[in-house]
Amino acid sequence: MRNVISLVFLFLLILYVDSYSQGGTRPPTGGQYPPGGAPQGPPPGGGQQPMQFGDVDSNHDGKISMDEAKAKFGGDPNWQTEFDNRDKNNDGYGS
């Protein structure tokens, strides 16, 4: 009987982890969804994939220059500060 309960628990845990890893939603703390059921719509962030290094490294030299960073993030008022924080050895490339 103990083995059966353990197997059922394991099965339910696997189902829960699998559904959550595929973009499923969890109920908020307390275990209850708000009135109307589970939230609908795309996941937070609009369903977009996170930015990758290659998305910024436009010349594919393996480094992100200040010009490449400005081209990608120039609309953000803090882009220069963020770039400087990542240019740890002050060589003009983010690391």
Please state how the strands of the largest beta sheet are arranged side by side.
Answer: 1-2
Instruction: Name the overall outline.
Output: elongated
- Beta content comes to under 5%
Number of domains: 1
Mean pLDDT: 73
Oligomer: single chain
Keywords:
95 residues, 2 strands, mainly alpha, two-stranded antiparallel sheet, 4 helices, single chain
Structural write-up:
The protein is mainly alpha-helical. It has one domain. The protein contains four helices and two strands; from the N terminus they run ααβααβ. A two-stranded antiparallel sheet has the order 1-2. 3% of the residues are buried.
Describe the SSE topology.
Layout: H1 2-21, H2 53-56, E1 64-65, H3 66-73, H4 79-86, E2 93-94
Antiparallel strand pairs: 1-2
Summarize the structure.
It is built from four helices and two strands. It has helices at residues 2-21, 53-56, 66-73, 79-86, and strands at 64-65, 93-94.
